[in-house]
Amino acid sequence: MIRHLTSMGVAVALLGCSTDEDPYLWLEDVGGEDALAWVEEHNRATRDAFAKDPEFESLEQRLLGIFDADDRIPYVYKAGDWYYNLWQDEDNPRGLWRRTTLEEYRKPDPTWEVVLDIDALGEAEGENWVYGGASILVPTYDRCLLRLSRGGADADVVREFDLVAKTFVDGGFSLPEAKQNVAWAGPDAVFVATDFGPGTMTDSGYARIVKLWQRGQPLEDAIAVFEGEPSDVSVGAYAELSPGFEMQFVYRGRDFYNSDRYIRRDAELVPLAIPTDAGYATHRGWLYVTPRSDWEVAGRTYATGSLLAIKLDRFLAGERDLSVLFEPGEGTALAGYSLTRNHVLINILDNVRNRIEVAAPGPDGWTAAPLQGADGTGFQTIDADAVDPDRDDRYFLETTDYLTPSTLSLASVGEAPAVLKSAPGKFDADGLGIRQHWAMSADGTRIPYFQVSRVDATDARPTLLYGYGGFRIPQVPRYSAGIGAGWLERGGVYVVANIRGGGEFGPDWHQAALKVDRPRAYEDFIAVAEDLIRRGVTTSKQLGVMGGSNGGLLMGNMLTMRPDLFGAIVAQVPLFDMRRYHELLAGASWMAEFGDPDDPDEWAFIEGFSPYHNVSDDVDYPRLLVTTSTRDDRVHPGHARKMVAKMWDMGHDVLYYENVEGGHAGAADNAQRAYMWTLAFRFLWDALADG
Q: Which residues are catalytic?
């Protein structure tokens, strides 16, 4: 049976043959005429809803001024003798890729040399180019593989660029738009994993074949290095090109968390015998391994979440006496590490508070000690990143928290950090404070969360609770001028929940919310919300929640699981349809996180956290704003479109906005970012202020 309904003035054909059919499938046609007409109708309705809001334009302009401000820290990375930066502002919305020297960078107003004007390039070529990064050739630093995407999508084009002449290389390496991995294999060769034609991509939409492509050679003549299976996530290869330590690596991602790794020698692949779920790095003859489950080898067990080191040649010879540089304890987790020439900077989370240790090998083994100026105080987030790992032991040190703008310092191991740049405050933080609290989840697990609010507040206030809870990503304190100007200055409370599924307490914290245990993340978030109400910080009518991507899935489940608990919800670039997520764009790559909907046993639990299948027409839901991007080729915009169409036809109060650009980030330039954040803040404040 075919029936016709009208959704926001757009007539659509709905298939009503069985409950298994999706009547909104037509909205998955990203560029379809009917789908885009539906999008524009909803966008217009959302714009109209705020057209007479006197505060909308003023906040939008303020946020744009913050994002475009000249006094931001221009973060740099070093390649050769240059320090590179991408700078976006009012005059350069897509950005100037530029560089300077350290001597200049130390100055309050450095002189920059423009390498490539992205806006001018886009105008000259008639493309909406967004800079996607550059892989610079080592050790000459005179060429790069430049990535450019249309509208900020994950798929990009790759072109070889001459960093001396500052022009594209005539006849150089060049690849058309695709989701691809490309890396230098030497000055005249690259590893290419791309769309080579029908049957060469995985079910997740990534390359399953990697080839070695020589300069001047037709791409079709490139030599195959490795071929994976369609069920794999992706494959790729790269080379370590530092003089004296040259080596080639190949990887096969079987799922999001398990990969086979190989060293390529004389065109032969030698397995790197580490656990498939372990992370690793090589640097100047050392192998570093981070097991994500207990690793039993040579009569010893190396703990989940530890950081291990061994000389690579010894490991390849069969030795397994790895040195333990870090082992997690009660409340501690490895947040990451950075490799200088002679040291390892170990970033540790201790009950979601940062500190950094520095480790070094010696005649009696490895030793570790607190890094000067980074031993952890208050709620600061501290990052230490090596400046030039092949040449010296210098590192950049960045410190920040929810109320303190970033400070960027430079030091060499053993020296006190010297401040390079400090960002000024962009909102009035007077009277505000940061506190950490703990809620009790349904299974008795204690869940930490950060609260930013006025220290003298005694009344319940509009509160914005943010969460993510997935893919091992921790939520740590960072300064956000947007949150400050758009929410805190108005008297709102800002809260960040450190729920399971994230990486705040290491791999176990993440694995506690995988697949059948996914509801643990949602129970944790609900526990934080209830704790805020119990403590009198807010009320359910004053409590708004926000999250994006996997956090958007979290928001969809808050909508369907506990509609009584919240006054408003913002879901950004969300997953909603968990029955079809694995068939849409990169979705198949996340089955290790969520499960396989085609397996009846797994769909039995996935259906329970699929918002699209649990929304009902007879429930009083909180107000909902859903935003996405037409150019998001990671999380399909069909998730957002279909959920809104379904709820709209049920008669629910839903607003929708789809940015035409931006990719999975949701915005491609500062003007788009300012609009999208203003939309979220104004929606939330209007919904919650009178609660």
A: 549, 664
